[in-house]
């Protein structure tokens, strides 16, 4: 094993989502956890714990509506994160929850909705400047539920105009990531439905707009590593949202359903780095909300799985691979990938962690830390004091 | 057009869901409607209005947790429905919302969850006896989110045992419908995932257990009409949940995405009736919750679309179809279906409606009735008085 | 009904595929037809018959390997088509059948394969100039069957280079259409897998390269009409391959599985025309090979179905639609589409056909013509004379 | 590692398909291999080589139409197999290739097709008795391409009757496996489309009829391990066809796309064995035809991959798994699976192979054997002598 394989782990900084530590659920209800975060301070504390335990999660993504209070100085929020050793990562506007967005935000036929949405996007950009975050991450719930509901081309043009307004608010060091998703919550048509639509939009905007790939946002059987390879080749890949899925957008822990696919995605990145001499500038962000797994454990599991698969992909013998590819030897080319994938990287990961001063087995270390028990007690008490119940509401 | 075609509409009684008149949403939030039902009385009033306007929706499905109060005499609920010209239709247990059901109900490894679930199932059955409802409709959110989470065969056996306990509580005139769904809210494995699993369970239970087909609960590209045909042939089809979908379980109005598919499903039923001389005993139930379309309008649209496609399917020239099929004439066989599907049945529907004393265009009649304005004013006032807001909650 | 609705049919010229009249099959075998075309002359005769009967199929797509003989003057082929009242339509290179293309054509790691492929592309372009065909239609079977088999980015770059060489051979009046397809015959990764990949390629090539949409080449549940709308808005839609499918690329007659979807696609085109004042320059081509339906009947069925759905889509009341869309009235907007879709257009089609001097019911007219019996007898005799058997070969 | 883990490999006997050694292709053409088998003797030689190299493939599946000559004594075929150390495994009828089967075999509306099909099924059964094969494997291409083409319920009943006739021909020691497949070559409806349909048929037939699971024959996202678990629990799982797929029925080498899924399937079998004390009686058969990978190498790759994933699945700590499952500890339960899956089993496999007297690395051993060069030279010469070309035929 070369040093470069191990040091490739240094290129994998993983951003944690503040919203991943609070109670969430499906449309059928929430299952509550006593240890779930009550407020932004809790979220930062939990994210800080994950970073402390894993040594590779120095930033936390924030969700503007949920993490910033009206009138609050954003620097206070940044300071709260720093208290737990974290910097503010990507800024996530919320363009889907207000009643105004009933028929969309940037795509809505209602000028008031579009105007409010653009204003929110610009505010998020300004907020990013204040907290020194360079990434504004746009996900749109926009779309229609029924054929005919709206004019698809008109919506596309509204998107172009609104995105342009937000793009123009960027400082030179900021970038805008445009996420795509084939469906949900829109049921008939989603405005930014696939990588091609995101690409078309970003190309029109300029060099500070890039495509965001959420690993769970694809059609069944779609080849995600090919999309990643194309975006890399076009210098249009801005970031990832990490998760896994079986059916729809299931927000499962990364690699829990199909680890080989994640390995192949990472292999494309290592291949790009091998060719260009450096890793591409990509934001690796987790986007997961767990309602069954303990939230902090699930985050640690995703982080360690990402490192494990990243390392396996770094082990791909690219020279042997290239030789087999050029000579049309399919069996050997595939075997190069499989050999790397089947390698047990436990010891290597332990070595890297030791060099960073973190425990070889982060999940075990977390469990031994007593943190879970501590926050469970504390938050249970605080909920009680504040009169917050965690019971199913029968709608 | 023969009389039998028109009178075939008499066989299509459509049950309305009480929960379809209240505010609902996706996991990303709810979009509220001023006219949405506040309580069960509102729901019955709305369902009664749909029945009055369409003339073919004499029953309303109830959801036990949401429509019956602890300690309340169920007959009061039945009386409330009768006030609006309705009878109580299928009884729908809720086995997914309580915190106890975190890892499932009938399939849970937790004996307390299973016990509570069976008790609820039996209570629903008893409640059905009181309100003279003969159909208990079981949908299970049960499943697992991750590989290994639970033992699939153990869950299957727990299901067998729990279903048996509920089955045994049935009176001779009651039946139990077992619904299947491939995914959601479980993400890795759903205990009753397809028609085969529902069939296996029902066969073990006995003749009062039948399969429930929700038109939105299938894999992409799965042939629903074939499943319907097989279940009919096996005398195992107990009922339908009507809706449409494009991607997942999208709860769209029936036939809004693929009307030809619904037509083909109905054609299987007419074919069965043509052969046996009578329509099968099937409960036709709507299961839709709309957060964008006005709820009552959406229900009327589904009912009239169902009638329209049912009538088109009744127009299939079965003799010509059979002749083409037997002689291997694919083009002509297909053309028989297409001809019926392409027939404009507006006038025929008007004729049938006239004979039933309802308006030829139910949606227009509803809009002219002033009902929407009336309930909007009334419920807005009542919400105000009760301090109920319809604003997005930022979680 | 306005005149413009009826005259919109004039904009729908449908190109027939020469290969659609010969025996074909699945990988499991062929089912032969006595009336199938033996040679290119037969194919042109059959296509000419379909055009004569329908009045809207003036061109025939040719497949270079199968319709042109080595050393033959291409003008002879054009003359053979003209004999049957047809012009040569799109030129279809074959870049998948030669043993040289085992690992691809433009994407192959083998320079000899790429070189031969480019040479064939250029030859097809030159051939197009000779026979006065302005459309060169590229479909690529290129891809890989296994992870690692080849370098995805390298394949992309090879494609860029090869496409460029072919593009440069175009005369100013020629255009190049680039088709996409998610899978088959490649099983793991297809080089031009979706509209985005085709778009990226065409954009790099220049204004004479456009995207070709085959209605059967999409992921399950993908919204084809949205892709069409986007491509129209980007002025990047060059043509269609008409067919239908349920599962994979099933090559079924257009609208046989989901007619409403085809209607919605056509509605996007009419909407574009309503806005710009003219129909876009699009090649409407059939790509179907039938092994069960009689080939000529299947073509007639597709042509008449296309006209029927095109006409229904032309009936969409765009003003009412726009009004409902702008006011967020989802129910009414959808109803505008449904009303047009449900209209019986039989009489309108008959009127248009009468005005063109063709029979009101083309399929019936074809059957009465005696053509089928004639070619069946003729071709059976010729096969016998030439010693051609139509029996299953047991491999 | 306990002995029982290693010895679990003894339970995994893998059957090779005779047809997997001959040239095959997709509907777009074949890519030929010089070393491909010309006749049944070649196929047995190749299968014998795979068995010699791997030590775990003692039987070869035969395809009646392709491996047995009219009038030939079947014992000659069995003797030819024995010459290479093999026994005849499953008998595979061919009910799809004859022109008579244009609209199906057991499901056809044509009594002559059904009669021929049943006769063939019975003949295959008798042939099985002669060659001492106990497994008759039924796969049906039956289905329809268009809505209306045939009566689905009528087809179902024809299937019941024909299957019964074949079932009755079984000797007490023979069993009949009924395979399901959602689509292809039928495009609209497949008669035995899913496990439920196969199950219903087998239940009616009796205890000698079991379901055959082909790992490539499922809907996108369908949970195959759950189907396996249910069939095991119902004692209805008769066998597997091993392969992998990404999109449709892609016939890829096992585990090449999603190895974790195959691991989970095997884990269900080990779990059943752990509970019952013995491995279920299942036929593990490869069904793959490769047109790009060298055929023998692909078979060895599938066999070794199967062993590797089987062994990993045997390493699952079932006690720890059960404990985590019962206590609702999702993270730990999943980790038990992941730990086993991530274990490097190379050394263990080498140990087992050594104990069986075969090489630790079968693929390397095969390559060193010189067999590939030998058959390539021999078969090239024989093809030349027989005037067999391996060139693309331009249809």
Automatic annotation (TrEMBL), chains A, B, C, D:
Matching Pfam families: AP_endonuc_2 (PF01261)
InterPro entries for the chain: L-rhamnose_isomerase (IPR050337), Xyl_isomerase-like_sf (IPR036237), Xyl_isomerase-like_TIM-brl (IPR013022)
Superkingdom classification of source: Bacteria
Gene Ontology annotations of biological process type: L-lyxose metabolic process; rhamnose catabolic process
Species of origin: Pelagicoccus albus
Annotated ranges, domain Xylose isomerase-like TIM barrel: 72-250
GO molecular function, one term: L-rhamnose isomerase activity
Keywords assigned by UniProt, alphabetized: Isomerase, Manganese, Metal-binding
Record PANTHER family: L-RHAMNOSE ISOMERASE
SUPFAM superfamilies: Xylose isomerase-like
Keyword Lipid metabolism: no
Name of this chain's protein: Sugar isomerase
The keyword Transferase is annotated on this UniProt entry: no
């Amino acid at each position: 094993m070369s040093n470069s394989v191990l040091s490739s782990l240094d290129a994998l900084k993983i951003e944690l989502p503040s919203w991943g530590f609070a109670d969430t659920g499906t449309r059928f209800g929430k299952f509550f956890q006593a240890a779930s975060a009550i407020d932004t301070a809790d979220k930062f504390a939990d994210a800080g714990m994950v970073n402390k335990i894993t040594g590779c999660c120095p930033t936390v993504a924030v969700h503007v509506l949920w993490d910033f209070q009206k009138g609050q100085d954003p620097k206070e929020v940044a300071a709260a994160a720093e208290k737990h050793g974290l910097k503010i990562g990507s800024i996530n506007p919320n363009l889907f929850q207000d009643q105004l967005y009933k028929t969309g935000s940037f795509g809505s036929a209602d000028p008031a909705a579009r105007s409010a949405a653009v204003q929110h996007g610009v505010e998020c950009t300004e907020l990013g400047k204040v907290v020194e975050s360079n990434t504004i991450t746009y996900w749109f719930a926009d779309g229609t539920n029924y054929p005919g509901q709206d004019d698809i081309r008109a919506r596309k043009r509204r998107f172009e105009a609104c995105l342009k307004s937000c793009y123009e608010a960027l400082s030179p060091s900021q970038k805008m990531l445009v996420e795509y998703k084939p469906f949900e919550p829109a049921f008939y048509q989603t405005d930014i439905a696939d990588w091609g639509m995101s690409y078309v939009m970003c190309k029109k905007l300029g060099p500070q707009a890039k495509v965001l790939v959420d690993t769970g946002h694809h059609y069944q059987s779609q080849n995600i590593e090919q999309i990643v390879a194309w975006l890399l080749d076009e210098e249009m890949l801005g970031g990832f949202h990490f998760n896994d899925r079986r059916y729809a957008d299931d927000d499962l822990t990364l690699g829990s359903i199909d680890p080989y696919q994640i390995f192949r995605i990472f292999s494309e990145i290592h291949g790009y780095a091998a060719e260009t001499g450096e890793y591409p500038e990509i934001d690796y962000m987790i986007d997961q909300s767990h309602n069954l797994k303990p939230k902090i454990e699930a985050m640690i599991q995703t982080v360690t799985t990402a490192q494990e698969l990243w390392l396996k992909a770094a082990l791909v013998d690219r020279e042997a691979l290239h030789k087999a590819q050029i000579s049309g030897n399919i069996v050997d080319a595939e075997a190069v990938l499989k050999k790397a994938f089947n390698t047990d990287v436990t010891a290597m990961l332990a070595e890297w962690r030791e060099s960073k001063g973190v425990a070889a087995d982060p999940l075990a270390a977390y469990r031994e830390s007593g943190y879970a028990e501590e926050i469970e007690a504390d938050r249970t008490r605080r909920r009680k004091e504040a009169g917050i119940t965690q019971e199913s509401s029968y709608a």
